[in-house]
Amino acid sequence: MRNVIVAMLLLSFTSAMAGTSAGFGMGGQFTRFDPVVSQYNQSGELFRIEGHCQSACTLFLGIRNVCVARNATLLFHAGHDRNKNIRASSTAHLLSAYNASLRDYLTSNHYMDTLAFHSISGRDMIQRFGYRECPGK
Questions:
Q1: How far apart are CA 47 and CA 37, in angstroms?
Q2: CA-CA distance, 76 to 74, in Å (whole number)?
Q3: What are the residue ranges spanned by the domains of the chain?
Q4: Which of 40, 42, 63, 132 is most buried by a 10 A CB count?
Q5: Whole-structure pTM value
Q6: Which of these, 71, 69, 41, 54, lies nearest to 131 by C-alpha position?
Q7: What is the pLDDT of residues 17-73, one digit of tens each?
Q8: Integer Cα distance of 125 and 99 in angstroms
């Protein structure tokens, strides 16, 4: 009986954490993010971008069933290697996850040319760039 309760708690915790950018907000290596994008694109499940989402976390915008919370903040910069050297291929990988409107905005304002963070609110992601707003929980 105890094992069943523990299993149910773990399952409910996993389900509650699934489908959200929580725990990924500080970015990191693409190898941590690309499998999540692939998994959600295959399943078609809703994925929520919430709270702080910087750098590689913005790859989640490439999930076909993604939504953005109005109170989220997304931070963009050029792609780079582990030594902080800007790499065109890494920047292209990030840009490929964004819709055309956001991609054009980021490149025309040279936000993807440096390692400086450029923030965009969830509200602007929805209103200016056409991303879907997350439904209430």
A1: 9
A2: 7
A3: 2-127
A4: 63
A5: 0.85
A6: 69
A7: 449 999 999 999 999 999 999 999 999 999 999 999 999 999 999 999 999 999 999
A8: 10
User: What's the pLDDT score for residue 105?
Assistant: 98
**Cβ atoms of residues 46 and 65 within 8 Å:** yes
DSSP codes, 38-99: HHHHHH---EEE-SEEEGGGGGGGGSTTEEE-TT-EEEE---B-TT--B-HHHHHHHHTTS-
Q: Please state, for a pLDDT cut of 70, what percent of the chain lies above it.
A: 86
State the Cα–Cα distance between residues 117 and 75, nearest whole angstrom: 6
Q: Tokens at residue 131, please?
A: 């991303």
